[in-house]
Design brief:
This protein is α+β, with helices and mostly antiparallel strands. It has 2 helices and 7 strands; from the N terminus they run H-E-E-E-E-E-E-E-H. A hairpin with a 7-residue loop joins strand 1 (50-55) and strand 2. The longest helix has 43 residues, at 3-45. The N and C termini lie far apart (61 Å).
């Protein structure tokens, strides 16, 4: 390989790193807050029993999460009398190492009755600049459709729930 070819590869490498940095800045300075504000507004101004959370413990690897509230079920432990709690599902917008944003849907679960092995649905990957209010609300609509599907489903891989 010639030095010119190496230099061309180095320039491609540096351009890739620069693009990632720009995506991270777009997420940090604009898109993360847009998504959080939309989800918070939705949770406060609709009947959806949910809350918005911001997980920013790791710089440039943040996530914004719409979490459905936990619910007490009609299932009760015969010995303790304790009712089982259904852990609400969630919609996660997480920044990947390449700067793009990935969506993940976590289905509701009832830990006392076992775990659903297909609990996560990996969604699409979006460049941060492609996310706007309309796109985010469409993703939330898809999430709610998945939650309706889960609630109405008979085949959950769990006995009785």
């Amino acid at each position: 390989m010639k030095i010119e070819q190496i230099n061309a590869k180095v320039q491609s490498y540096l351009a890739a790193k620069d693009l990632i940095k720009k995506k991270q800045e777009t997420w940090q300075n604009k898109i993360r807050d847009l998504i959080f504000d939309l989800l918070k507004n939705l949770s406060l101004n609709s009947d959806l029993p949910a809350r918005a959370e911001l997980n920013d413990a790791v710089e440039n690897h943040n996530s914004v999460i719409l979490v459905l509230n936990d619910e007490v079920t009609n299932f009760r432990d015969h010995f303790t009398g304790k009712r089982f709690i259904k852990k609400g599902g969630s919609l996660i917008f997480a920044q990947l190492k390449n700067g793009n944003i990935m969506t993940v849907i976590k289905k509701p679960e009832l830990p006392e009755l076992g775990s659903d092995y297909e609990n996560l649905i990996i969604g699409k990957e979006y460049p941060p600049e492609s996310l706007n209010s309309n796109v985010v609300l469409d993703i939330v609509g898809d999430f709610i459709d998945k939650m309706i599907e889960w609630e109405n489903s008979q085949d959950r891989g769990q006995i009785g729930f």
